[in-house]
Amino acid sequence: MSFYVPFKEEKYNEAIEIYTEILQLSDLSFENEAVIYSNRSATYLMLKSKDSLEFAKDDAEKAIKCWPSWWKGYYRLARVHVVQENWNEAEQILHHASAMNSESKFVRDEISYVRKKTGMLSRQGRIIPTEKFKEATGMSEEEFRNVKKHFQSLPGIDDVMKGHQYCIGIEVQQDYKKAAEFYEKAANLGNPIGMYHLGLLYQDGNGVKRDFEESMKWLLKAANTKPTSLMASLLIAS
Question: Taking the model in full, what pTM does it have?
Answer without folding.
Answer: 0.54
